[in-house]
Amino acid sequence: MSSPDVIVVMGVAGTGKTTIGPLVADALGVPYAEGDDFHPPANIAKMSAGIPLDDADRGPWLDAIGAWAHRRAGRGGVVSSSALKRAYRERLRSAAPGLVFLHLTGERALIEERMAKRTGHFMPAALLDSQFATLEPLGPDEAGVAVGVSGAPEEVAERAVAALRARDAAQLLTPPRFPRLPSPPLNSPHR
User: Fold this and answer.
1) Residue 100 near residue 59 (C-beta atoms within 8 A)
2) Is the pLDDT of residue 83 over 80?
3) For residues 170 and 182, what is the distance between their CA atoms, to the nearest angstrom?
4) How many CA atoms lie within 13 A of 77 on its CB side?
5) Residue 119 above 70 pLDDT?
6) If pLDDT is split at 50, 70 and 90, which confidence band does 122 have?
7) Left if phi > 0, otherwise alpha if psi is -120 to 50, otherwise beta: which for 50?
8) DSSP assigned state of 133
9) Parallel, antiparallel, or unpaired for β 6-10 and 32-33?
10) Residues 6 and 96 sit within 8 Å (Cβ to Cβ)
11) Burial degree of 120 (CB within 10 A; 0-12, 13-18, 19+)
12) Three-state DSSP class for 4?
């Protein structure tokens, strides 16, 4: 990538954010921050009990991730965050406007299977339905790429880095868009 972007690896629980994030960071030569480490203890206790977080719970967590991303602006970095709703991504971007999102996607059955094999994580598979119900995929106007999670972690990370680099290259080739000004009325002296 030509500029040191800060990348947010997003997606529902079980897509491999904690596995893929460090691999992408290593490939890009930037530091990685684990999004779960930004959760206050009350959030971890709630999720461990199988209770989904609400927007009030997520606010301080998103702000802490946004602050980290802001400090890394211009130097690059990768951080994981589910960032399931557009409003959450906008909150992150309000702290660090240049964020680029890497959305890890996959079929529910595959993700559930992976979650069942996972040990030592506070997020139970029972919360997967609430994660999918909350998910708002990246919009076409949001800076980011989506990458499927099928295959080995190294393959997913390689596809992710390639997609991020392709996005970066496309931006360099695309001329900036300027808002289209309305045409003057037909009877205007400026026509």
Assistant:
1) no
2) yes
3) 28
4) 21
5) no
6) very low
7) left
8) H
9) unpaired
10) yes
11) exposed
12) coil
Residue 103: the pLDDT is 98
pLDDT score, position 70: 97
The β-bridge partners of 144 are: 101
- Going by the DSSP 8-state scheme, the letter that residue 183 receives in this structure is P
Phi/psi region, residue 75 (left: phi>0; alpha: psi -120 to 50; beta: rest), is alpha
**Residue 11, pLDDT score:** 95
Q: Compute and round to an integer the Cα radius of gyration of the chain.
A: 19
Do 44 and 74 form a contact (C-beta atoms < 8 A)? no
Residue 133, both tokens: 């119900």
**Would you state the torsion angle of the CA atoms of residues 140, 142, 143, 149, taken in this order, to the nearest 10 degrees?**
-70
Q: pTM for the full model? A: 0.82
C-alpha 15, offset from chain centre: 12
d(CA 44, CA 39): 7
- Pull the structure tokens for residue 140: 């076409």
Crossing angle, helix 153-173 and helix 17-28, to 10 degrees? 50
Sign of the CA dihedral with 11 first, then 16, 20, and 22 last: positive
Nearest-angstrom CA–CA distance, 18 and 10: 10
Predicted pLDDT at 176: 52
